[in-house]
Amino acid sequence: MAKALATKNPVSERMRSIRRVLWVILVLNLAVAAAKYVYGLMSGSASMQADGIHSVFDSAGNVVGLVGIALAARPADDSHPYGHAKFETYASLVIGVLLLLAAFEVGSSAVGKLVSGVYTAEVTPVSFIVMVGTLAVNIGVTTYERRCAKRLKSEVLAADANHTLSDALVSIGVIVGLAAVALGFPMADPIMALVVTVAILATAYDVFKHALATLSDHARIPDKDVQAVAMGVPGVQDAHHIRTRGTEGEVYADLHVLVAPGMTVGEAHELSERVERAIMQRFPNVIEVLVHIEPNDGHED
Known about the structure:
Blueprint lengths: L1 E6 L4 H32 L2 H27 L13 H31 L8 H28 L2 H28 L5 H28 L7 H9 L6 E9 L4 E9 L5 H18 L3 E10 L6
Parallel strand pairs: 3-4
Antiparallel strand pairs: 1-4, 2-3
Helix pairs in contact: 1-2, 1-4, 2-3, 2-5, 2-6, 3-5, 3-6, 4-5, 5-6
């Protein structure tokens, strides 16, 4: 029986790329937040102020993401032999908490207006210009960030993209609310603010779901996909006990490979290296593979 281990050093360029994306998004989110919140205060629109607050929390999430990426980029050490990649996941959890705080702020403000019966929103053409303009920015940011998240396999970018998408949907709701106010239904403004609250809570749930998948060591690659790659290597008679875990961008894999009982240690070692290379080539996000060699003599291990 022989064991072989292959590792691939995490590409620091991936972390640098994520950091650059977060800086760009931070600047755009701050601009959008300022435009919506300031005009919301000027016009007395609760839903516009709520949407502005939501965008501010988007910016806070970007800052958290930047801190998380800075920590995740540190190399492995004696205390963290598997590296620091999960700090990116922890950053996603903090973003989720910020979303819950935003939902409370927005929801309590809306409920207060509904209970008091005081509706102060004033709708002007500028209101719609501000909202439509910021909506266009949000849609552009979401599209850009989603593409980067997919390319870089980044949990922080994926969570932030979903967050920004919810901001865009919220903006659509605010526009609808302003239109209703203009038509003589002032109660629609705080009601749409409550819709904002629900959207934020839904986003928080999505963020927590993805972060907990990493922290609970949820399988990252289907076993059958890894098995198919291993079985495609000449000399491999079977593969089982396949496990994968880690973040979406840095996956660790281990598996048992069955070989001919008469294979020498040297031959088994060379075969294991070919299996490792095949898996890493097929799944670029796999940074480490542990192959456990077993003789295919009918025993179960």
